[in-house]
Amino acid sequence: MYVCICNAIRETDLRCAARRCPGDADAVYAFLGKRPQCAQCLDDAAEILIEEREGCCHQAIAA
């Protein structure tokens, strides 16, 4: 699924970048070589980043 239509950023791309880039949605977009354009996606992107990072932390603790 596309999270950001303007930049063609898919949810899987965003989740992968979230594991490598510790910043907010703007920082993760920059990590991907993009920047928000219309900004309609930023709330959804932020939620995905939080969800992905919480999942990574729980996996690291369980291991």
UniProtKB/TrEMBL annotation:
Pfam family of the protein (one): Fer2_BFD
Cited Gene3D superfamilies: BFD-like [2Fe-2S]-binding domain
BFD-like [2Fe-2S]-binding domain mapped to chain residues: 2-51
Family annotation (InterPro entries): BFD-like_2Fe2S-bd_dom, BFD-like_2Fe2S-bd_dom_sf
The name this protein goes by in its record: Ferredoxin
Organism (species): Croceibacterium soli
Organism lineage string: Bacteria, Pseudomonadati, Pseudomonadota, Alphaproteobacteria, Sphingomonadales
